[in-house]
Write a structure and sequence with these properties.
Length: 316
């Protein structure tokens, strides 16, 4: 008899005390349905301030398939996903949110596809974000359109982090050692065959979203800086455009002066033009600064996350 394949589920958790028990129950139920595979669940406690760690300790005592990694502080979901990918042993790995917006039930269909079709990854995207407001929905859609145009990594609108992938793909992601990790872009960058399934993401099962507008904007900017150098080139294009406009203006002024003389006027418009151009210059300086700050963080080679405790510490 051939050995059963192992599916590892990676679940980043930040203050998920309400959702975690629900998630575990559901994942457990699904694992019982999938009799021909073994399961491993790796929860990452991302510096939660509630009882998340306590619940994880209990779950790991009760069920030996449950492992956990507890960070020394909140490092962010990206760090959590990275730690999970590094820790898992499975032939396949799936990343899932703890709040049931990524229903474990879907794993059955995803596993079926990844084993029967020639794909390395099965990923989900949502057509409707029921739990999110109108502004967040529209901004997200717009952002995906822009990033798809300017970056070299294809990104699907509404893509979630929920995906099941092969060991080969996990190892490829891990071979990318960058500090500023933007996993959505990295999946696109490593390539491989990905099959996209549409579904309607339900509302959070319990608790509240851990991403506010400020965090989301920071995340979006990181995505651009990590996978596109187009903003840096923009300065060149805008600079060239301004040179062209000023050249035409100079020729116009010379001709005007030769024909009609040179009455001094236009001081207010001059001030406006100067303000406009210095604004543009500062804007592009800011863009360069964004890239510079990323390089700064990158060359420091700081660890992406720090572990305080894992299930091994408790099991001995
Ligand atoms: N998360 C995390 N660290 C953070 C923020 C979020 O590990 O700093 C986890 C969170 O516990 C959840 C997943 O990332 O499992 C997605 O977060 P959330 O559901 O709040 O985001 P949303 O669905 O609103 O985008
Ligand atoms: Mg969520």
């Amino acid at each position: 008899m051939t050995k059963k394949k192992l599916i590892s589920i990676i679940v980043p958790c930040y203050n998920e005390q309400e959702s975690l028990p629900l998630f575990y129950e559901e994942a457990n139920r699904v694992s019982k349905k999938m009799k021909n595979v073994d399961f491993e669940m790796v929860f990452i406690n991302d510096g939660s301030k509630d009882n998340t760690l306590k619940i994880l300790r209990e779950l790991s005592k009760k069920d030996e398939r449950v492992r956990y990694i507890s960070f020394s502080r909140n490092f962010g979901k990206e760090a959590g996903m990275y730690a999970g990918l590094e820790a898992v042993k499975g032939d396949y790995a799936a990343i899932m949110d703890a709040d049931m917006q990524d229903p474990p039930e879907k794993l059955i269909e995803m596993y079926d596809i990844i084993t029967h079709e020639e794909v390395d990854c099965v990923a989900l995207y949502t057509e409707s974000h029921e739990g999110y407001g109108f502004i967040r929905k529209s901004l997200t859609n717009l952002w995906y359109k822009i990033i798809d145009k300017i970056s070299d990594s294809h990104q699907v609108p509404g893509a979630r982090d929920f995906r099941l992938m092969t060991r080969q793909m996990v190892d490829s992601i891990l071979s990318m050692k960058e500090y500023n990790r933007y996993t959505k872009g990295m999946f696109g960058f490593v390539g491989f065959e990905t099959k996209w399934l549409a579904y309607n993401a339900p509302d959070r099962a319990a608790g509240t979203s851990k991403f506010n507008m400020k965090k989301l904007i920071k995340y979006a900017m990181e995505g651009v800086v990590a996978f596109s150098t187009t903003p840096l080139l923009l300065a060149t294009y805008v600079g060239l455009l301004f040179c062209l406009v000023s050249f035409i203006a100079i020729v116009f002024i010379i001709i005007k002066t030769l024909i009609w003389g040179d009455p001094t006027s236009g001081w207010p418009s001059m001030v406006c033009i100067m303000m406009f151009i210095s604004g543009i210059q500062l804007f592009f300086l800011g863009i360069i600064g964004m890239y510079l700050s990323k390089i700064y963080l990158e060359v420091k080679h700081r660890p992406v996350y720090l572990i305080k405790e894992t299930e091994k510490d408790k099991r001995g």
